[in-house]
Every structure is written in structure tokens, then in C-alpha cells.
Amino acid sequence: MAKDNKNLLERGVVDVIIKEELEKKLNSGKKLRIKFGIDPTGSDLHIGHGVVLRKLKQFQDRGDTTILLIGDYTARIGDPTGKSETRKTLTEEEIKENMKHYIEQASKVLDIK
Questions:
Q1: Per residue in 1-51, pLDDT tens?
Q2: From the CB of residue 8, how many other CB atoms can be counted at a distance below 10 Å?
Q3: What sign does the CA torsion over 18, 22, 24, 27 have?
Q4: What pTM, to 2 d.p., does this model score?
Q5: Is the Cβ–Cβ distance between 26 and 5 less than 8 Å?
Q6: Contact yes or no for 12/50 (Cβ under 8 A)
Q7: Degrees (nearest 5) of the Cα angle 98, 14, 83?
Q8: CB of 2 closer than 8 Å to CB of 27
Q9: pLDDT in tens, 78-105
Q10: pLDDT single digits (tens) 45-85
Q11: What is the 3-state secondary structure (H, E, C) of the chain?
């Protein structure tokens, strides 16, 4: 395995599902499309988001297409399990504002264009 691909697959990663398949794709020279979806339930990204954003940046630097998908469904309905009082239902205006903040923060790591 090429050193850069080994680093991409192993550094900062706990597990890669079907690692051998991804490794074949990486070594094929084909460009990949990598997606990460988040819900704008707050205005700030947290350290867990940062870990994934840094991994997306590695794929971006390799020339792959990365997609940051900000969904709004969970933010609209709150916490449907009733287990959390911290995740309230947000208005459309609050969701749009949170999305704006997420994009601003993610752009410090990713090339958003």
C-alpha cells in the first residue's frame, strides 16, 4: 500500500468498514466521493466533528470530492426519544442560523467550494 494511502486509512481512524475494498479504490487512482452528514441542532461544531472534518480534508487533499451534508430534519423535530431535554425543536430561522455557523466553522478545515 502506498504510504499516503496507508496514512489516510490508519491515522486518526478507529475502524474502516471493508478496509480492503476502500484500499483497492484508493490504489486504483479513481477519485472518490466522500460524504459526512450532520444535523444543525446547535450553533457550534464540537471536537467530534473536528476529527471527521480533518479526515475529509485528507481526502480533499488527495483530490477526492468531499460533501458536507447539513440536514435539518433532526433539528426540526428535536429529540424524538424523550430521553434528552437538551435537544429541543428549533425554528426554521434557528436552523438556518446554525447551518450558517456550521459552514463558517467547517470552512476553517475544509475547502467549502
A1: 677 888 888 877 777 778 888 889 899 999 999 999 898 988 999 998 999
A2: 22
A3: negative
A4: 0.75
A5: yes
A6: no
A7: 45
A8: yes
A9: 666 666 566 678 889 999 999 999 999 9
A10: 999 899 999 999 999 999 999 999 998 887 777 666 666 56
A11: CCHHHHHHHHCCCCCCCCHHHHHHHHHHCCCCEEEEEECCCCCCCCHHHHHHHHHHHHHHHCCCEEEEEECCHHHHHCCCCCCCCCCCCCCHHHHHHHHHHHHHHHCCCCCCC
Query: For residue 43, which phi and psi values (nearest 5 degrees)?
Result: -95, -10
Residue 94 identity: E
